Automatic annotation (TrEMBL):
<dbReference type="Pfam" id="PF20511">
    <property type="entry name" value="PMI_typeI_cat"/>
</dbReference>
<dbReference type="GO" id="GO:0005829">
    <property type="term" value="C:cytosol"/>
</dbReference>
<feature type="binding site">
    <location>
        <position position="314"/>
    </location>
    <ligand>
        <name>Zn(2+)</name>
    </ligand>
</feature>
<dbReference type="GO" id="GO:0009298">
    <property type="term" value="P:GDP-mannose biosynthetic process"/>
</dbReference>
<dbReference type="InterPro" id="IPR011051">
    <property type="entry name" value="RmlC_Cupin_sf"/>
</dbReference>
<protein>
    <recommendedName>
        <fullName>Mannose-6-phosphate isomerase</fullName>
        <ecNumber>5.3.1.8</ecNumber>
    </recommendedName>
</protein>
<dbReference type="InterPro" id="IPR014710">
    <property type="entry name" value="RmlC-like_jellyroll"/>
</dbReference>
<dbReference type="GO" id="GO:0008270">
    <property type="term" value="F:zinc ion binding"/>
</dbReference>
<dbReference type="Pfam" id="PF01238">
    <property type="entry name" value="PMI_typeI_C"/>
</dbReference>
<feature type="domain" description="Phosphomannose isomerase type I catalytic">
    <location>
        <begin position="58"/>
        <end position="204"/>
    </location>
</feature>
<feature type="binding site">
    <location>
        <position position="162"/>
    </location>
    <ligand>
        <name>Zn(2+)</name>
    </ligand>
</feature>
<dbReference type="InterPro" id="IPR046457">
    <property type="entry name" value="PMI_typeI_cat"/>
</dbReference>
<keyword id="KW-0413">Isomerase</keyword>
<feature type="binding site">
    <location>
        <position position="160"/>
    </location>
    <ligand>
        <name>Zn(2+)</name>
    </ligand>
</feature>
<dbReference type="InterPro" id="IPR001250">
    <property type="entry name" value="Man6P_Isoase-1"/>
</dbReference>
<dbReference type="GO" id="GO:0005975">
    <property type="term" value="P:carbohydrate metabolic process"/>
</dbReference>
<feature type="domain" description="Phosphomannose isomerase type I C-terminal">
    <location>
        <begin position="378"/>
        <end position="424"/>
    </location>
</feature>
Length: 462
C-alpha cells in the first residue's frame, strides 16, 4: 500500500522514455527503426518528439531521516511518522530521536526513487535538461537548487547562522570536512504545528533597557551612549565569550529580577523560558542569554512562516515545520550545543547581519500563487531565486490545478490523502497521494490535486 498505485495512464503524444542513452541511441540505425513509426505519427509537432513519458517526469521519492538529539522521540516525531509511510523497512524505535526528514539530492541524507532505490541525484544527473530545466542548468549550478526537509523539534537547535556565499566558499576551501559545499543557505520554515523560534534581532530600543541591569551592563562596550548595530554585534560577541560561571550568575539574577522590568519591554517570556532553556542545555550556555536578551521570540501557528537570510541569526525551539533552503549544509554554531560543537565566536559575531530587527522583519507572509487555478494554493516567496514554497490546502471534495513551472518541484503530502493527475506534453498520469508521500515533478508538468477527505501538500518549486 505504500507504493503509488497508478490509477490510470494515458500517454497521448510522444511515447518514449528519454534517458540519455535513448538520445544517443537514436543516432544508430537500429534505434532509428524503433523510433521510425512514432516519428511518422501525424499531429505530433517535432518539438514534442522524444520528450519524456510522465513516468520519468513525475516519480515518488523516499526521504532520509536523521537522529540529532534535539529531535522528537519515537512516534512523537512527525519526521519519523512521515518516513514510515513510504518505507516499510523503517522501524520507529521509542527511545530514538528523529529530528529531520530530508528529501532533496544533497549527499548527506539523500532522497531515493522509491520504485528503484536509485539516488535522486543520479537520476537528475542523467537527464538534467528534462528534469531540472534550462534555468537551473544555466543559472543555478545544474543541481536541484533547493533542499526541503521536515523538522520535528523537541528542544532548541543550536543558535546558528548560515554563512553567505563568500564566507562559505572560504570555509569550504580551508575545511571541506566541516563545510561540505561553497554555497549560502538562506532558509524558510513553514509551521505545521505551533512553532516556537528565536529569529533575527529585536528592535534596539527593546534590547538596550535590559542591558541597563547591573548584571548585564558589563557586556556593553564602554562609552556607549547610543546603541547601534555595531553595539549589538559587540554585545553578542561579549556574551558568547563570557565565562561559564558568570553566565550562570547572570541567569540567576535575571530569574530574580522584578517582573515589571520585563513587562515594560514586552519581554515577560524571558522569565518563562529561562528555566526551560537551562534544563535543556544547562545554566552555563551563553546561547540562553543571547537568545533571550537580543532576539525576537515568536510562536507561529500552522501555516505561518519565517525567512532567515544568509548570516541571519536563529534558533528553532519547538514544533513541527516544513523547511526549505538553498542547496547547502553550512552552519556556524555558537550556543545550545556542547562547547566542542561551537565555531569561532569572532567569526560568528563578525558575520552577523542586522537586516531583521523586529518580528515583522522575520515573518514571511504567503500570497495566492499565480500558478493556482482555484486559489487554494498559496506561495511563500523568499527574496532569493533558488526556490519558492507552495502550500495547497483542500477540504473534502475540493481540487486545485497548479500550472507547470520552469524548474523542478518536490512535494510532500503533509496531511490527508487524495489523487494527483500530472500532465505535460509527455501525456497524463494519475497517482495516489497519502500522508508522507513525496514526489518529484519535472519542469513543464502541471498537476491537479484533488481529495475526498481533505489534504494538504507542500511543494518546493523554482
Ligand atoms: Zn538554520
Amino acid at each position: 500500500m505504500d507504493r503509488p498505485r497508478v490509477l490510470s495512464s494515458s500517454v497521448t503524444t510522444s511515447i518514449y522514455t528519454c534517458t540519455s542513452q535513448d538520445i544517443r541511441d537514436q543516432h544508430n540505425s537500429d534505434s532509428r527503426k524503433k523510433f521510425h513509426n512514432i516519428f511518422e505519427t501525424p499531429k505530433i509537432p517535432a518539438s514534442l518528439r522524444l520528450t519524456c513519458t510522465m513516468t520519468d517526469k513525475v516519480f515518488q521519492l523516499s526521504g532520509s531521516c536523521n537522529n540529532y538529539p534535539w529531535g522528537k522521540q519515537g512516534r512523537k516525531s512527525l519526521a519519523a511518522q512521515l518516513k514510515v509511510r513510504t518505507d516499510k523497512d523503517f522501524e520507529i524505535k521509542d527511545d530514538e530521536y528523529y529530528s529531520e526528514l530530508w528529501f532533496g539530492d544533497y549527499p548527506d541524507f539523500p532522497a531515493r526513487v522509491l520504485e528503484t532505490g536509485e539516488l535522486l541525484k543520479d537520476v537528475l544527473d542523467k537527464n538534467k535538461e528534462a528534469l531540472l530545466g534550462k534555468k537551473v542548468i544555466s543559472e543555478l549550478g545544474g543541481q536541484l537548487p533547493f533542499l526541503p526537509k521536515i523538522l520535528s523539534i523537541a528542544k532548541a537547535l543550536p543558535l546558528q547562522i548560515h554563512p553567505n556565499k563568500g564566507l562559505a566558499a572560504e570555509l569550504h576551501a580551508s575545511d571541506p570536512e566541516n563545510f561540505t559545499d561553497p554555497n549560502h543557505k538562506p532558509e524558510i520554515a513553514v509551521a505545521l504545528s505551533e512553532f516556537e523560534v528565536f529569529a533575527g534581532f529585536k528592535p534596539l530600543n527593546k534590547i538596550s533597557p535590559l542591558f541597563n541591569l547591573p548584571a548585564l551592563h558589563p557586556f556593553v562596550p564602554a562609552n556607549t551612549t547610543h546603541w547601534t548595530d555595531s553595539t549589538l554585534r559587540e554585545v553578542v560577541r561579549n556574551l558568547l565569550k563570557a565565562d561559564e560561571v558568570d553566565i550562570h550568575g547572570i541567569i540567576k539574577v535575571l530569574t530574580q529580577t522584578r517582573h515589571e522590568i520585563f513587562v515594560d519591554i514586552d519581554a515577560v517570556y524571558i522569565l518563562d523560558l529561562l528555566p526551560r532553556l537551562q534544563e535543556q542545555y544547562g545554566p552555563h550556555d551563553a546561547g540562553i542569554l543571547v537568545a533571550l536578551t537580543c532576539m525576537n521570540f515568536m510562536t507561529l501557528h500552522p501555516g505561518e512562516a519565517i525567512y532567515i537570510p544568509a548570516d541571519g541569526i536563529h534558533a528553532y525551539l519547538s514544533g513541527n515545520i516544513v523547511e526549505c533552503m538553498a542547496r547547502s549544509n553550512n552552519v556556524l554554531n555558537s550556543g545550545f550545543c556542547p562547547p566542542a560543537d561551537r565555531n569561532s565566536i569572532d567569526m560568528f559575531a563578525d558575520t552577523l547581519t542586522f537586516g531583521a530587527h523586529s518580528v515583522e522583519d522575520v515573518m514571511l507572509r504567503n500570497q495566492r500563487s499565480g500558478r493556482s487555478k482555484e486559489g487554494r494554493t498559496v506561495v511563500y516567496k523568499p527574496p532569493m531565486s533558488e526556490f519558492d514554497m507552495l502550500k495547497t490546502s483542500l477540504k473534502g471534495g475540493e481540487w486545485d490545478l497548479i500550472a507547470p513551472g520552469e524548474g523542478p518541484g518536490v512535494m510532500i503530502v503533509t496531511q490527508g490523502k487524495g489523487k494527483m493527475r500530472a500532465s505535460s506534453d509527455g501525456g497524463e498520469k494519475e497517482f495516489e497521494l497519502s500522508e508522507g508521500f513525496i514526489f518529484f515533478v519535472a519542469p513543464g508538468v502541471g498537476v491537479k490535486l484533488e481529495t475526498e477527505a481533505g489534504m494538504q501538500v507542500h511543494m518546493a518549486v523554482l
